[in-house]
Every structure is written in C-alpha cells, then in structure tokens.
Amino acid sequence: MQLSIGKLAIVVITLLIVVTLVTTGLGLSALHNDYRSLQARHEAEAIDTVRNAALSIGNQVRFYQGILQLISTKPEVANLLEFGASSEMQDWSASLRRLLPGILGSALASDQGRVHGDANAQRVGPACVLDMKHLHEGTPIDFPPLHTDVEGLEHFDLLAQVHTPDGQPSGTVFVSFHLGIIDDVLQSMLSPGDRFELRTRQGTTKLAVGDEGAAAAKRSYTYDVPDTSWELVLYRAAPASGGTIGRLVGADVLILVVSGILVIYLVRRTTSAFTRDMARVHAALNNVLAGDYRPSAEPTAIKETGILLPDIEQLALRLQEQRDELRQQSLSDPLTGVFNRRYFDMMLAHLHEQSRRHLTAYLVIIDVNDFKHVNDEHGHQTGDRVLQKTASFLRSRVRATDIVARLGGDEFALLLSQMSTDGLVDWVKSLLDDFDRSALAHAAGQDVRCRLSVGIAEVDAATYPTAANVFDAADRAMYAVKQRRDGHRSRFEFAAAASAAPLMRSQEGQ
C-alpha cells in the first residue's frame, strides 16, 4: 500500500514550527564561521590573481627582451654599427618595426647612447634618448623604462648591448613597445569590479585597467613584476555578506525539512517507506551525477516517488548528452576540429611530469608562413580553408596516441610520445616534404600553397624545469626558422638542450 506525503503535511508543519528556534540559532553560528571562511578564500583568490597577472607581464617582457638579445648577437648588427652609414641604420630599424608586432619605435645607438639617424623619424623621443644616456653613464633607471607623458604613445623601452667579435661594446639596439601589450594581458585577467594599476618603484601609476574611481573603496593587493622595477596592484571589493545570509536561510530551511522527516520517521509505517524510497532517490541522483543511471522496475512504496523517478531518468539522459557535448566543445578548436590551447596546455604539463619517469616525448610547434598574405590576397574564407586543410593534414600523419592542437591564429602544435630523435627527424622531414607538395586551397584559379616553420623541443623535466620552459624553447626554435624562411620549402629546427640557450642544432632536411 502506497502512502501519500500530502496526508502528513499538517503534522510536519506543526513540528517544523517547534524546531525553527533551534535551527535559527544553529544557523547564526554557522553564518559567522562561513563568512570568515569566505573572507579567507577571497584573500587567497585575490593574491593568486595579482601574482598570476604579474607573472604574465614578466613573461611578456622576458619574451621581447629575449628576442632583442637574439637580434643583438647577429654579426650583421655589429657590422652595421661599426661600418654602416646612419641612413643604413635607420633603414634597418624601419625593417625591424615592420617585423615585430607591437613596436612603437626602434633605433641603433652608439656606445655613448647617441641615436644613429633621425630620432624623431625612428619614433625615439627625448625621454628615451635620456634613458639610454643614463644607462651608458651608469645612472640607475627604472627597468624597463615606462613613458606615458604623450597620450596615444604610451610605451615601455627595452635595450640590448651589441658587442664586436672581440667582446668590445659597439652600441645598443633600442626598441619601444606599445603599452597596449600589457593592457591586453591585464584585460584578459580582469574580473568584473576589479582594477589593476601598474606602478614604478616610486609609486607612480603608469597604467590603470578596470573600474575607475572605485579603488578607494576596495582592498589592495600588490605583487612585484619579475625582472622589472614595476609593481602590480589589484583593487578588489571585500566579499558581500548577502550571499552568506542567503545560504543561512537555505541551510535553515534544509534543517527544518530534515527535522520534519526525522519526526515523521517516528511513525512506523512512514519510517519504513521513506527510508526505502529516499534511498532509491539518493542512489538515482548519484548515478545521474556519475552518468551511470539505470531505471529500476521495482515499485515504490510512496506514490510521489513513483512520479519522481521517471523525471530523474529523463534528466539523466539530458545531462549525459550535455556533458559529452560540453566536454567536446571545451577541448576542441571550433574551426579546425583539432584540440585547442586549453587541452594542449594540460597534456604538455602531463607529459612534462611523465618525463620525470623517463618517458620520452617531443613538442613540435608549427607556424604557417605568410598566412596573413593568404588572408589579404584571397580572403578570410580561403584562409580558414588553409587552416582546416593544415589541421587535417597534421592529423592524418600522427598516431592515435599523439596530440594535434591549434594554439591560435596560424600556429599548431604536436605532442609526440615514445619516438626516438632519429625517428623524429626522418618523420618531420617526410611530413614537411609531403606538405610542401600539397595544395591547401583553391582561389582565383590557382592552388594556394604555404610553407611551415617548425621548432622542436624534447619534453624533459631534467632539461626544462617547467612545461612553460619547454614551450618557450620550441617557440624560439620555430621563430629562428621563421626568420630565415625563403618561401621555397618548409624548415625545422631543434631547440637548445638548456632552456636559456637560443638554439642547440639545426635540422633543415638537407
């Protein structure tokens, strides 16, 4: 015989009124503890946010400084400073501005800090010239220097010394980058209501991102930007107690319901029915969350439970479908169908950890050369087909255990496991030869063909302390190949054995 919960409603309501006073007192105690816990979590999240943002800015500065150091070691730069005319140096700086994204100005300067050529034409302002002079005189300056006195031309400066073959200083490579590069980094990490401020060591705010005018009413968290004289300040409002009060009310209601059920359990028949059917409901909900729900043909003891269980079954099916769809969407690139940057980062970190147990893996970073020219010449639709064909080609050449991912734009990455170095070299040569012979798209009556620049690094924790170091090494190797591209064939290069070194050896499929 089935029991109806409705018949017991009057008894439950009466008993709940009695226990309300007890549950309210317990809830107030829980409120105090819960709010203190919320404050602690808020503090930890804010510290993590400002630390991660500062580290991201430091990584961005180190990346550009590394490029500048690489450029300064090229023999042609030293020769240009030693023997070139001012007009030749000015032409060289103009070509550098076209090559690197985000550059505001660039120039070559003497070892006394004097700019070769027209400083204004090379977008080198008086403040930048003064910084170079102070640097060569040994006067301490903020590094990298930040200049925000001219609206629309806010920037920071990076410098690298150039030496002759015998080690004597011959001059300086100067490059200034738009401050918008750092603004973009902070914008990507900004939460609603937050405010970031980038300051010099003297406490002068040079860049502010986020909610203006609200800093005075918020708590501040400060973190030094690595390898710079900057500091980053995060302003974030204290957690509101309204949500905690809402949880208190919810907890109070839950306690009242549980108390009512416990009273009802005093009735013998009701106790037996509720215990059996609520256990079935609880097991069904757990199975729904685990994605392993199976309908049961056993009749229920309570009529309302018999109505509820079919609804749980429908909910389980919908949740399973949505879970599979969301998982696929969160880990794949919508344009090419290969894995996205999020999944790539997770797998790179996993393989880096696996390398501590001597499991061999390689990271291969691939850049499609002159992809912007394809978009400009044939349109973005053709450019999308080029990316799709490239992804399809890479996916057809890897094993089931390997990973193909799109990092963004025209860059792809491969994670190859259990492959020897010699086997990898032969495989990459074959891959690039076949790619160079393939047409990626058809536009204006012509086949669209592209070439690849490829950088390779071994995923080895003994060589690279972090997964980010592995990525940086492969990225530098790819960039070095890209600098030497000739448009005739794809090329590749291995990264250095140590993450701080630019390159170890080159393999170009001779």
Question: What are the salient characteristics of this protein?
Answer:
510 residues, alpha+beta, Beta-Lactamase, Alpha-Beta Plaits, 3 domains, 6-stranded mixed β-sheet, 4-stranded antiparallel β-sheet, 13 helices, extended, disordered C terminus
Describe the protein in words.
The protein is 50% helix and 18% strand. It has 510 residues and is of the alpha+beta class. The protein folds into 3 domains: 264 residues, Beta-Lactamase; 63 residues, no CATH class; 167 residues, Reverse transcriptase/Diguanylate cyclase domain (Alpha-Beta Plaits). The strands form 4 sheets. The chain has a 6-stranded mixed beta sheet with strand order 10-11-9-14-15-16, sandwiched between helices. A 4-stranded antiparallel beta sheet has the order 1-4-3-2, with helices on both faces. Strands 6-5-8-7 form a 4-stranded antiparallel beta sheet, with helices on one face. A hairpin with a 2-residue loop joins β10 and β11. The protein is extended. It starts with 8 loop residues before the first helix and ends with a strand. The C terminus is likely disordered.
